[in-house]
Known about the structure:
mainly alpha; 3-stranded mixed β-sheet; 16 helices; 4% strand
Amino acid sequence: MMFSAERLRMARFRRKLSGKGLAEAAGLTPVTVSKAENGHQPDEATVQKLADALDYPVDFFFMEAPETLETKAVSFRSLKKMSAAERNASLAAGSIGIAFYDWIEQHFNLPAPDLIDLSKERDRPEVAARLLRQHWGLGDRPIGSLLKLYESKGVRVLSLSENTPNVDAYSFWHAERPYMFLNQRKTAERSNFDSAHELGHLVLHFHAARQSAQIDDAEKQADQFASAFLMPEADVKSLLGHVYSVSQIIKAKHRWKVSAMALATRLHGLGMLSDWNYRSIIIELGQRGYRKGEPVGVERETSTVLRKVLAALWKNGITRSEIAQKLNLPWEEVETLIFDLAGHMPSRPEAPSLRLVR
């Protein structure tokens, strides 16, 4: 197998290094790094220096070219404020996430995607949210576990690493499978909204392999979709007939596992708060600390599928280092994708009790 220039770039992006930075870290010249990234086959000593500097296994660079993602195929929420290094690191994480799930699917049967194409409803995000709820048989009730629901409908959910703090979340389709990456540094309520926002992108703007161009107000549409999907109008109106205080909102937000700000915005959008009341409530919520966090928050969700996969692998005697070895990745690259779930695994494999399906 030849040395993969694409994999060298991917590893460099994950480390948020420039070509010059990698050259300095590896004790090589920038020209040598540039040649390696442009298809020239480096010698054994050079490969070892690159691998050491990037802390990636040498074998990683001799695998087939990775699946690469283009910026236009990914729904980045904060594209304007993120740096090019953060964007490239996130796209590289997406490629690693694809490889990780491809490997999982060699051993486990995962739910097939069950997301409908709602691109014709882009201008009516509230209708789109209602149609998806109907398709999934959710009615108007609150959703108990969002990530568990998404995964049961075939969405591959992964977490984002801490070296991309300005990336809230992103999603994309690859090989007819939907992927969603979520930042775990936000509050649980904001992560819930982010996940519903990304779900909106998956059904409204990027369904399947569609090369739909980003539209100026796609973010606004995804926000409206998320608000309606999480807080159905009928359920909100049945619980909150007349809203007169911030305390009501703070108490009620737990029903839908959203932030107090998100619920206030939803109430305003439904005409249940006047402009004046909405502004007053937002100001008071800010004064109480709800702009930067949720003083009384809900429990953060993690991936049910990945927890089961890791538990099954562990019970079959497959350790973390073996998982990383099979993927030819540093373990910490895998760990950033799996919601820190490995930290809750027992220190030693237990007796096998769950059979791999493949």
